[in-house]
Amino acid sequence: MKSFKSRSIATLAILAAASLIGCASTSRSEGTGEYVDDSVITGKVKAAILEEPTLKSAEINVETFKGTVQLSGFVASRGDIDTAVATAQHVKGVKVVKNDMRLK
Q1: 20: pLDDT confidence band, cut at 50, 70 and 90?
Q2: Residue 89: Cβ-neighbour burial (10 angstroms; 0-12, 13-18, 19+)
């Protein structure tokens, strides 16, 4: 009876470990927690850009992967690019901002 119980516990421990490994991130994919964190960062960056009166938020796309924010889209001026990058950099959780925005 004791060996059955210990085998059951060992089996459950292995299954738990395997399920956690399935949620782990790699260099090309995110774990579940990172995906949620990145979604929050993306939302905060979009909100910050929306609050910036000089920027047209509909022109700027925001994507986040492991804390790296990528800004893309077509904007009216170099000043808009600089403002959007600076705005994104000030959002908590942003590690790096990559600028892929282009002038119209």
Answers
A1: low
A2: middle
